[in-house]
Amino acid sequence: MRTVGAAVCDRGMAIVLGEPGADRLSGVVDVLREWQDDGAPWQLHPGDLGWFWRFGAETTAAAVRTWSRDGRILAVGLLDDPELRLLRLTVAPDARRDRELARHLVEDVTGPERGVLAEGKVCVEAPRGALVHDLLLEDGWKAGEPWAPLRRDLTGPVKDTGMRIEVIGPEQAHVRAAVQRASFDGSTFTEEHWHAMAAGSPYADARCLVAYDDRGDAVAATTVWSAGPDKPGLLEPLGVRRERRGHGYGTAIVLAAAAALRELGSSSAIVYTPSSNVGAIATYESAGFRRLPEIRDLCRDA
What we know:
alpha+beta
C-alpha cells in the first residue's frame, strides 16, 4: 500500500491516507463487505468497486483511497470521476463520529495537494450521520442534486414474471455489453470491460442477468452484487434498451435481480437513481422496492 499522508491524532496513533495498490484491493473489498448493514446509512458498497473494476484492477486501485489507524482501515473512498471531481466515501460503523478521523478526512478532501480531489468544483458522497458530513457542511460545502435510494426486503419470496432471464457467462459477455450500450447514453461498456469486471474479487459474489423478449431479443440487463449472507445486495447498473421501454421489461429485470440476490443470501436489495428519474423510481417501486429519504452529495464550488 502506498502511503500518501498522515496526521497524528489525540490517541497517539497516526491516521494514514493511502492507496491500496492492485495487490491489496481485495482486502479493501472485504472491509467494505463487513461494514454493510440494513440499518446503516446509505454508503459505498463492494459492488461499487466491482462495477468500477471494468476498467481493470490497476485503474480501480488508483481510484481508491483508504484512511487507517494502527493498520486498521477506518474509511474508504472511491474517486468515481476521471477528473477527481467526485469522492464516494464511507466510514467504519464505530468510527462515524471519530473527531480526529473526520478532521483528517476534511483536510484531505479540501486540499488538492493531498492527492484526493482536484481543485475547483468537487463533491463528496458521505454517509448521513457521519461526523465528516457535518464538518463539511460547517466548512461551507453545499448540498448537491438529490438522489433516491430504494430498498426491497428479501426475507420473502420474489415474484417470477415468467420472462426468460439468463445468467451471463463469458460466452455471452458481448450480449451483456450490447444491452448496456443500448440502455445508457454515452456508455462505452465493451466485452473486454465485462471480462475485466468478472476477473475482480467482488464478482465472486455477483451475477449478470439479461432479459429476453418473446422473439429472443435481449432487451434488459443488470448486474447484482452480494456483500455476503444477511447483508444488503446492490443492483449496479440496470438498464432497458431505449427502444423497448414501457413494456414491463424493466420491472421483470428488477424482480429477477431481487430473486438472484435472495438466492445469494442477501437480506435486501438496494439501488439508487437520480430523484429526477421518475420512470426508474416507478419501475423499482412496481417491483416492491420502497423509497428511502433522499441523499445528496456535498459540493464545493471552488
